[in-house]
Protein: BTB domain-containing protein
Amino acid sequence: MSPEEVLLKLLNSGGLSDLQFSCKDVKVKVHKAIVCIQSPVIRTALQGNFKEAASRVIDMDSFDPDVVRRFTEFLYTGDYEEFPAPDTPKAGPAAATTKPEGDGEDQDKDSANEISSSNESVASGDSSDAEHIVSRHLLMNSIGDYYAVQDLVDLANAKTQSLLSNSVFSVSALLSLGETAVKVTGDKDVLDIIAKATGRVLALAGDAESEVDIDADPEIDIMARHEDLLSYFGLRLLASCRREYRIRKDSTDHEQWEDRRAIQQYENRIAMHDRAVMNLLNAKQCRNQGCDPPYSFMIHPQKGEVICRRCRWVFDLCC
Ligand SMILES: [Zn+2]
Structure:
């Protein structure tokens, strides 16, 4: 047997297990040696006076059972099964880890953790399906981030990146995914990935000859605290739009008289985005005298505007 087959057999049989992942009615038998070498968070929980050290159970109730199952699969195989599109019936092996409460103590039962080693690819033709699947990869990022398994965070991000590159997403879907990412993970890399994809669509929609429609007002709420992840996402969005305009400007022929106007327009947009970044970094309170705290702000990444959420005051660096 190859080392990979040995690990898969260990996982699927649950044999020699000395630790359990518990998520609602799913109990997965795992092995400390394999888990702890990859997750410093779980390793710490199993040392000292934490309750997990005595119970040998890691409570994962705050995650979805499907996410915990794939988390476990990743720890043993370095990959996880693709998520099915919504309303697709679960594959047979997926149900095998679901065991009723109280049936997880039998160490000798074979196939306790039966997990499919095959990765079914998901057709990504339908954009709402693709959006749903990206949101699941964000949850894989989330559990990887929570237990400090960086390789899982990176893998989930690669899958997210691939879906964002190969499917057409609306701006509202991308912004919604960005806001989801802010809520579920502390990982900034995935915010960069989503911000870049959003910038591409926003800039495309701004092209004169483009037929891309923006399906919603592409504003995003940015809270007043500059250090928070939503503000970070907003800054990355502005940077992403700016980069798209820069690419368009650089690829425009400087010799052609009619193109000089286009170049000037791109330069204006780039300058607006630079101002918006400065405004966002400096926006501690609304500059409209009639406005009251608490202040929070929105950005319009396409226009490069920072807007007071309360009074709709549009910030300008000169004020
Ligand atoms: Zn205001």
Residues 128-254 form one domain. The chain is about 50% helix and 10% strand.
